[in-house]
Amino acid sequence: MFWRSDRKEWKSMLPTEVLKRVSIFAGLSQEELQQVAALSRPVQYNRGEVVLREGEASNELYVIGKGMVEILVGAGDQDARPVLNLGTGQVFGEMALVDRGARSATVRATTDETVLYAIPSDALLRLCEENTHIGFVMMRNLAAELSLKIRLRNIADRMGAS
Hints:
Layout: H1 16-20, H2 30-37, E1 41-45, E2 50-52, E3 60-66, E4 68-73, H3 76-79, E5 81-87, E6 91-92, E7 106-109, E8 114-120, H4 121-130, H5 132-161
Antiparallel strand pairs: 1-8, 2-7, 3-6, 3-8, 4-5, 4-7
Helix pairs in contact: 4-5
């Protein structure tokens, strides 16, 4: 992702206190969390600004440091409908760690001064290869999250069919 000059950026990295609350990093030591945090780059968005668009290349995951975003699905900005709201300490774009597929949704800031920390998937995957404990813990947590999402989707589908 290219960092546009109209985005407010900081030199600070993602606070480990925020990372501790992110489910895919659960079980990592303070030192390991610091290694992950060192890969991050903060950027600020205001209400209504699009962070990423459905169909774009998937090469970063984002941790919400402050504020809220909404996840939208649908063809084009006009037809997109919100399906989920996320806030501080939550993550999106984690599928960038699994595949290089296009983004499956659009993400838009819903609060002013929303602070996101972008973590390049290539750098994070390199860290996972270098420190296999980080890699194992993260991939186990990611698999558990994806499994839960599939189960919830299956339940919703069955309820809709009733």
